[in-house]
């Protein structure tokens, strides 16, 4: 069955703004679903409802067949990774320690966590020999973003939510990082919900594309080819 099912999801904030209106999506395991649309159409709110940072007004979300509202919050944190554009690395920790945060908290043996962190840094295009020992402020915005992706993957979440993850990466490098991310995601079998305002990115990375419209409505939902045909 599908990994993530969003059914008739609606969010109206306290001030009366309806950010998401009657949204339904079904995302299979190891798929990337790209939510694309202009600023303010409810993409971030949708992600925040999936990981319970925002409470839905109505509708349901199920993760591997379970209602997320009934999943223990700690378990949910482990099951759902979250990457945002402002990655929020720990400024006083070196890059390697930043990537190892979650495995360390979970008690993964240090040598194993370290080897994996180095492998992930390499996979996101940061040579560990050069970057592992640096501090976040010694990296560019785009490089910090790569660290954020490596950190999220280090936790090995079955589902990864990404809000404009490549927004801070310069356009020349963005495509390379997108392609590397795609390969890595397929290898790990991670189910991804990716938010972007860039249709190119949505079509390039999404197995399914959800085009959202102002007012939080779903305008289109289908494969990239189906969406592009409209
Ligand atoms: P997007 O991610 O597509 O830019 P958002 O989900 O951030 O869209 O926002 C959708 C709409 O909801 C916007 O009109 C935004 O101003 C509004 N909104 C977002 N967060 C809040 C909030 N906490 N309170 C009230 N309105 C909000
Ligand atoms: P993003 O587009 O990445 O969601 P925003 O700048 O829209 O970033 O939102 C940043 C923060 O401000 C979020 O926590 C969001 O919920 C909140 N926010 C956004 N719009 C509003 C709003 N109209 N009223 C209150 N909070 C808002």
UniProtKB/TrEMBL annotation:
Instruction: Give the transmembrane region(s).
Output: none
Annotated GO MF terms: ATP binding
Question: Does the record bear Aminoacyl-tRNA synthetase in its keywords?
Answer: no
Question: What are the entry keywords?
Answer: ATP-binding, Nucleotide-binding, Transport
Start and end of every ABC transporter domain?
Answer: 4-230
Q: Which family does it belong to?
A: Belongs to the ABC transporter superfamily.
Q: What is the protein name for this chain? A: ABC transporter ATP-binding protein
Q: Which taxonomic lineage does the organism of this UniProt entry have?
A: Bacteria, Bacillati, Actinomycetota, Actinomycetes, Propionibacteriales
